[in-house]
Amino acid sequence: MTTTRLNDVVKTPAFIKITVIALLSLSLFFLFNPFSSSYNPSLIFSSLPLLLSNTTPSSPPPLPSPTTLHETTTTSSPPPPPPPPPSPPPPPPPKPPKMDMLIRMGIVDENGAMSTDFEIGEIDDGFDDEELEHEREKEKEKEKEKEKERNGGKRAKVEKFKVCEDKSLSHYVPCLDNVEEIKRLNLGESVEKYERHCPPRPLDCVVPRPEGYQVRVPWPQSRNQVWLTNVPHTSLFEAKGSQKWISIKNNMYVFPGGGRAISHLDRISKMIPDIGFGQKTRVALDIGSGVADFGALLMQRNVTTLSIAPKDKYANQIQFALERGVPAMVATFATHRLLYPSQAFDFIHCSECGVNWAQNDGIMLLEANRMLRAGGYFIWAAEAVYKREENLREQWRGMENLATRICWELVKKEGYLAVWRKPLNNSCYLNRAGEVQPPLCDSDDDPDKVWYVNLRTCITRLPENGYGANVTTWPSRLHYPPDRLQSIEMDAYISRKEIFKAESKYWNEIITGYVGAFHWREFKLRNVLDMRAGYGGFAAALHDLGINCWVMNVVPVSGPNTLPVIYDRGLIGVRHDWCEPFDTYPRTYDLLHANGLFSVEKKRQRCDFLTIMLEMDRMLRPDGRVYIRDTLSVIGEVNEIASALGWVPALRDTGEGPHSSWRILICDKQERKKKNNKQRRKKHIN
Asked: Which of 315, 379, 550, 570 could pair with 282 in a Cys bridge, judged by C-beta atoms 3.0 to 4.6 Å apart?
């Protein structure tokens, strides 16, 4: 009867409805529970390996043993207790662990959406200030671009530049001819008046050529003669003509050279048998060089000699050197460091150079010591000392005493000629008596920091690791990564040698293309300026391809100081800021090369492109050429200014093809037409 009633209940419609509703509820519960708010689909792939590593394959529950079954069937037991209440539903699965990237950044939340409450925090002390400044500059550039778009997207046109009306500017060196500033400082006859005193505003006109200027005499003929009209000042000839340095024949300056310079150099070779010109000795500095006879002669022995002299009462001895095609630069020993790195020169030469090395606690000789390579030679030809009054002999005695105190070894002395050698390490300095002067410079003194840095009355320390002294012989040193490559402040730490080699290969391939496509051998280059030299790969490529020229490698202050590497390679160079004029005469260089320079200067925002390119025009010889390799973002403006200067520009693709973001702008400086003199320049808006 009971069974019949139960069957009747099961068959009732009400029971069926209750059962269906219960099953449907359970189905919905298990269906939607995995996709609750605790589930994070954005992290499923990132957390999957971790989840798999923390789980094991599921296994069936253990079966009861036969003994247990037997006991269950044979043992009597009280009635079973009521069934336990149903267990609560399982808890939701735990949140997957957050990945380190999300914890570190805090920008994206656990659901993969942009967070609105992340904290920026303090700036890390190790954060690169230059990177921060770069980001700010990028924002400024974006604002400028937006402003241009609001103004129709047009930049004010640059009209043709006029030639300066003041004809005396034809030999103008801006930072050395600032008469107003020299008068204001009341420098009188102080050596400081020969240093850089740049005008507050650059010229806004093109420097004129001398009357009757002619295209330069090609090398090597220029070593012996140059046009009289190209260097019309005769003060040097009038002062030194009796010494047979220079003479005038027809419309040419003639440089006899030969005899005296050759005998002087032969004498040095005998006094220093292991000097090894062209192998061990590759880079030299000639102070007070006259017309650079010494440097011109050393070039025949495969030695690059940088001739320096002030723009003094003789006015233009460096101008003669540059017109001849000999490496030279206007520079003087005064109150600031010269713009060359420590351990730059294999030997330094001073022949009647007019420098009193022992005065002011020997500060000038200490500067020469800074630039002299460890183990290098200082050669002093002081013939006039033995022929004039007592105070000159006193200078000689002071020089001998000072050289001993700074641990220079007197190698040999013959009459008026003396040779000293710099030590290879600091041991002599450290073993001196405590009261001996001058002292060693502080360990935090950077001997390669030279831009507007005052001279110091201390001995520059040599690196304990021997960097700078261990250079290989020429020509191997041109392509051998030097030790000082590791001391440059730059981002790369491990791959520096690879970067060095890659730069050399890069420029070798490019210059090979230039020589073939643009006929550089026919161009007869002699004086070349690389305005952003890097490691000197451009100059090295010119040497490898047999282009008979010399290159002044400029390392801008806006980038890493690679000058020590350039000199260790056997090349020459200088530190400079291209927002200021360069210390050379007008019409110095046959070729100006600027790779990526304008992009860098645009980011600095210290000066506009007009300032740089007017200075380029001042330095460039008539019939000279400019190669600018830069990004599309700046090349258009540079092209426009080039046309305004009277250059003939041609825009070309790089080797990467027309879709590259870089272009090459090739400009020829040609004869300016007279009508341009009357044209006026409109204000340029950057």
From this structure: 570
